[in-house]
Protein backbone atom coordinates (compact mmCIF):
# COMPACT_ATOMS: atom_id res chain seq x y z
CA UNK A 1 0.00 0.00 0.00
CA UNK A 2 1.09 3.56 -0.69
CA UNK A 3 -0.09 6.67 1.13
CA UNK A 4 -0.90 9.56 -1.16
CA UNK A 5 -1.83 13.13 -0.30
CA UNK A 6 -4.33 14.64 -2.72
CA UNK A 7 -5.60 18.17 -3.15
CA UNK A 8 -9.15 18.90 -4.27
CA UNK A 9 -10.60 22.21 -5.41
CA UNK A 10 -13.81 23.56 -6.93
CA UNK A 11 -15.20 26.97 -7.84
CA UNK A 12 -18.03 26.08 -10.24
CA UNK A 13 -21.46 24.71 -9.35
CA UNK A 14 -21.98 23.04 -5.98
CA UNK A 15 -18.41 23.49 -4.81
CA UNK A 16 -18.73 21.57 -1.54
CA UNK A 17 -20.85 18.87 -3.14
CA UNK A 18 -18.29 18.42 -5.92
CA UNK A 19 -15.46 17.98 -3.43
CA UNK A 20 -17.41 15.59 -1.21
CA UNK A 21 -18.48 13.51 -4.19
CA UNK A 22 -14.86 13.30 -5.41
CA UNK A 23 -13.67 12.19 -1.96
CA UNK A 24 -16.37 9.51 -1.87
CA UNK A 25 -15.37 8.29 -5.33
CA UNK A 26 -11.68 8.27 -4.44
CA UNK A 27 -12.47 5.96 -1.53
CA UNK A 28 -13.95 3.29 -3.82
CA UNK A 29 -12.26 0.33 -5.53
CA UNK A 30 -9.89 -0.79 -2.79
CA UNK A 31 -8.72 2.72 -1.92
CA UNK A 32 -9.12 4.03 1.61
CA UNK A 33 -9.38 7.66 2.75
CA UNK A 34 -7.42 7.76 6.03
CA UNK A 35 -7.57 11.51 6.80
CA UNK A 36 -9.55 14.54 5.64
CA UNK A 37 -8.67 18.19 6.07
CA UNK A 38 -11.10 20.98 6.71
CA UNK A 39 -12.63 22.75 3.72
CA UNK A 40 -11.24 26.22 3.05
CA UNK A 41 -12.49 29.05 0.90
CA UNK A 42 -9.53 30.49 -0.97
CA UNK A 43 -8.86 33.26 -3.44
CA UNK A 44 -8.22 32.15 -7.04
CA UNK A 45 -4.59 31.56 -7.98
CA UNK A 46 -3.06 32.16 -11.40
CA UNK A 47 -6.17 33.68 -12.95
CA UNK A 48 -7.69 36.08 -10.45
CA UNK A 49 -10.90 37.12 -12.25
CA UNK A 50 -13.04 34.13 -11.26
CA UNK A 51 -15.07 32.92 -8.26
CA UNK A 52 -13.36 31.89 -5.03
CA UNK A 53 -12.47 28.22 -4.60
CA UNK A 54 -13.20 25.66 -1.96
CA UNK A 55 -10.10 23.53 -1.29
CA UNK A 56 -9.41 20.45 0.80
CA UNK A 57 -6.88 17.62 1.08
CA UNK A 58 -7.13 13.93 1.85
CA UNK A 59 -4.73 11.11 2.62
CA UNK A 60 -5.41 8.00 0.59
CA UNK A 61 -4.05 4.48 1.13
CA UNK A 62 -4.10 2.49 -2.08
CA UNK A 63 -2.36 -0.41 -3.73
CA UNK A 64 -2.04 1.56 -6.97
CA UNK A 65 0.77 3.12 -8.98
CA UNK A 66 0.89 6.91 -9.35
CA UNK A 67 -0.01 6.87 -13.05
CA UNK A 68 -3.05 4.65 -12.30
CA UNK A 69 -4.17 7.02 -9.54
CA UNK A 70 -3.80 9.98 -11.90
CA UNK A 71 -6.01 8.19 -14.45
CA UNK A 72 -8.59 7.45 -11.73
CA UNK A 73 -8.55 11.11 -10.62
CA UNK A 74 -9.08 12.31 -14.21
CA UNK A 75 -11.98 9.84 -14.61
CA UNK A 76 -13.57 11.23 -11.42
CA UNK A 77 -13.12 14.80 -12.68
CA UNK A 78 -14.89 13.89 -15.94
CA UNK A 79 -17.71 12.08 -14.12
CA UNK A 80 -18.33 15.10 -11.90
CA UNK A 81 -18.51 17.26 -15.03
CA UNK A 82 -15.19 19.07 -15.31
CA UNK A 83 -15.00 20.99 -18.54
CA UNK A 84 -11.82 21.96 -20.36
CA UNK A 85 -11.14 25.66 -19.91
CA UNK A 86 -8.14 27.96 -19.80
CA UNK A 87 -5.22 27.06 -17.53
CA UNK A 88 -5.86 27.96 -13.88
CA UNK A 89 -9.41 28.90 -14.82
CA UNK A 90 -12.72 27.93 -13.24
CA UNK A 91 -13.37 24.24 -12.63
CA UNK A 92 -16.07 21.99 -11.29
CA UNK A 93 -13.44 19.81 -9.63
CA UNK A 94 -9.67 19.56 -9.70
CA UNK A 95 -7.83 16.63 -8.12
CA UNK A 96 -4.04 16.77 -7.85
CA UNK A 97 -1.64 14.18 -6.49
CA UNK A 98 0.60 16.06 -4.06
CA UNK A 99 2.76 13.38 -2.43
CA UNK A 100 3.38 9.67 -2.15
CA UNK A 101 5.55 9.24 0.93
CA UNK A 102 9.11 10.25 0.04
CA UNK A 103 8.72 9.33 -3.64
CA UNK A 104 10.38 11.63 -6.18
CA UNK A 105 8.86 11.14 -9.64
CA UNK A 106 9.16 13.25 -12.78
CA UNK A 107 7.36 11.86 -15.81
CA UNK A 108 5.53 13.46 -18.69
CA UNK A 109 2.34 14.87 -17.16
CA UNK A 110 3.03 13.64 -13.62
CA UNK A 111 5.44 14.95 -10.99
CA UNK A 112 5.47 13.86 -7.35
CA UNK A 113 5.70 15.82 -5.14
CA UNK A 114 3.52 18.27 -7.02
CA UNK A 115 6.04 20.80 -8.41
CA UNK A 116 4.20 23.93 -7.24
CA UNK A 117 2.73 22.78 -3.94
CA UNK A 118 5.37 24.57 -1.87
CA UNK A 119 4.22 27.98 -3.14
CA UNK A 120 0.44 27.48 -2.98
CA UNK A 121 -1.19 28.32 0.33
CA UNK A 122 -4.51 26.92 -0.94
CA UNK A 123 -2.78 23.52 -0.96
CA UNK A 124 -0.59 23.90 2.12
CA UNK A 125 -3.30 25.17 4.51
CA UNK A 126 -5.56 22.10 4.18
CA UNK A 127 -2.56 19.76 3.86
CA UNK A 128 -1.24 21.09 7.17
CA UNK A 129 -4.46 19.82 8.82
CA UNK A 130 -3.56 16.21 7.99
CA UNK A 131 0.18 16.07 7.21
CA UNK A 132 1.89 19.03 8.88
CA UNK A 133 5.09 17.07 9.53
CA UNK A 134 5.44 15.55 6.04
CA UNK A 135 8.84 16.57 4.74
CA UNK A 136 9.41 17.43 1.09
CA UNK A 137 12.06 14.95 -0.10
CA UNK A 138 14.05 17.44 -2.18
CA UNK A 139 13.40 20.71 -0.33
CA UNK A 140 13.82 19.20 3.15
CA UNK A 141 11.03 21.40 4.55
CA UNK A 142 7.87 20.23 6.31
CA UNK A 143 4.41 21.31 5.22
CA UNK A 144 4.30 23.63 8.24
CA UNK A 145 7.62 25.22 7.28
CA UNK A 146 6.54 25.70 3.66
CA UNK A 147 3.25 27.23 4.81
CA UNK A 148 5.08 29.67 7.09
CA UNK A 149 6.87 31.00 3.98
CA UNK A 150 3.73 31.43 1.87
CA UNK A 151 1.32 32.88 4.43
CA UNK A 152 -2.40 32.30 4.23
CA UNK A 153 -4.01 35.65 3.41
CA UNK A 154 -7.64 35.42 2.39
CA UNK A 155 -8.03 31.74 3.31
CA UNK A 156 -10.95 30.90 5.61
CA UNK A 157 -11.99 27.52 6.99
CA UNK A 158 -15.67 27.03 6.15
CA UNK A 159 -16.58 23.49 7.21
CA UNK A 160 -15.47 19.91 7.71
CA UNK A 161 -15.05 17.49 4.86
Please explain how this structure is put together:
This protein is an alpha+beta fold. It has a single domain, classed as 2-Layer Sandwich (Alpha-Beta Plaits). The chain has 4 helices and 8 strands. The chain has helices at residues 15-26, 66-80, 121-131, 143-150, and strands at residues 2-10, 32-36, 38-42, 53-62, 94-100, 105-107, 110-112, 156-160. Strands 1, 2, 3, 4, 5 and 8 form a 6-stranded antiparallel β-sheet that branches. A two-stranded antiparallel sheet has the order 6-7. A hairpin with a 2-residue loop joins strand 6 (105-107) and strand 7 (110-112). Helix 1 (15-26) runs antiparallel to helix 2 and helix 3 runs antiparallel to helix 4 (143-150). The longest helix has 15 residues, at 66-80.
